[in-house]
Amino acid sequence: MYSGVVRSTTSRKVLTLVIIRKGSDILLGMKKRGFGAGKWNGFGGKVEPGETILEAAKRELQEECHLRSDSLREVGLIEFEFKGDPVLEETHVLTSDVFEGEPKETEEMRPQWFSIDNIPYHQMWLGDKYWLPLLIQGEQFKGYFLFEGEEKILNYELKTS
Ligand SMILES: COc1nc(N)nc2c1ncn2[C@H]1C[C@H](O)[C@@H](COP(=O)(O)OP(=O)(O)OP(=O)(O)O)O1
After folding, report:
1. Homologous superfamily of 11-160 in CATH?
2. Is the CB–ligand 1 distance for residue 91 below 6 Å?
């Protein structure tokens, strides 16, 4: 995607990440287990064989916090690479402010609304403070982040369109 960046990955994992909005709040979930445990994040996961991005995003939203949305739209595409890991995470970011249901805690996530003026970036993935403001401003974006471990970004690029 970016001419200046040389990828060392050899395969791709396709993931979704959904940020639900309500007025000046966004819904995040505290990841309770697995990858990213202990961090607030949007809702999402791997796209299963035969699923579209949209179908996967809707499924993960319902599985992880019991919300349903038929109005998700893709606003961002981010490639996450971890130094030394051959798998590139192609992450499709979707959002909506139209949904049904009340967020409920699941085995995977504990959902909570946050004001956009009080987003807990200190307990989120390091890249979020760069791209989430773009989503909040209604921008579309593409990005690449190279991590070393979970707590260091070696390089990143972010473009709006
Ligand atoms: C590295 O930076 C990241 N930042 C953010 N904000 N989110 C990320 C980052 N890397 C991955 N993600 C997102 C993408 C997905 O929404 C989840 C990871 O999904 P997970 O590995 O839990 O996928 P599942 O299908 O739920 O996996 P299991 O079936 O193994 O539970 O994090």
Report:
1. Nucleoside Triphosphate Pyrophosphohydrolase (3.90.79.10)
2. yes
